[in-house]
């Protein structure tokens, strides 16, 4: 489950990963936003992958989704302004 490289972000290649569940409305909104802006990402379904859920909690300190990882940055919840800022959109 490797994340896909995206455009040059902050002078380096970064990866985008979203930890989500199938029933999460804000997860769907986040994925739609990334797709609309042609950002490659890896979708990690924490409902089906408990180990990934633990990884998400370790990285974010949160149990709720979505958790978006962009390079070394973590966004908890859907935050369009923060996504635009980190992705340089």
Q: Give a quick account of the main beta sheet: strands, pairing sense, barrel closure.
A: 5 strands, mixed
Query: What is the rounded Rg?
Result: 12 Å
Helix proportion:
25-40%
Distance between the termini: 26 Å
Order of helices and strands: EEHEHEEH
Low-confidence stretches: 1-5
Q: Look at the structure and give the CATH class.
A: Alpha Beta
Silhouette: globular
The CATH topology is Glutaredoxin
| Total domain modules | 1
Query: Whole-number average pLDDT?
Result: 88
The proportion of strand residues reads: 25-35%
The count of β-strands is: 5
User: Treating each run of at least 4 consecutive H or I residues as one helix, how many helices?
Assistant: 3
- Helix/strand-derived category reads alpha+beta
CATH homologous superfamily designation: Glutaredoxin
CATH architecture: 3-Layer(aba) Sandwich
